[in-house]
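## retry 2 of 3
previous attempt timed out at serialization; input unchanged, resubmitting
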Amino acid sequence: MERSRETRKLASSLHLDGIVVTGARADSFRSRRVGGRVFAWRDSTWTDIAHGDSLRVVSVAAFSDAYFALLRALPELAQPATLEPSVLVAGRRVSIKIGAGGKTDWASGELAKLVGDFR
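## retry succeeded, writing output
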């Protein structure tokens, strides 16, 4: 009976002996919660953890005409846009990266299409 109890205890326990973390220190992982989203610091960019590699990325130059028009069209990006030096925000069918470089203006209908793909 005692052996059975011990077996059940072991079956419900969690063993981490096989897990090895290499190449990073525990304190090197940084994350922030902004505007209801969680962002992780990856490759010098605050990246929305909801971003998937399959999503198309549209880059917009910070503080350009395209940037201000984007924030008017998608006000939910105003808070994430404060993350510097760049931020990548995941949408439904497209992610938007705001930082150095990228679009500085929009072609006719391009912003409306982006908003539809994002939401």
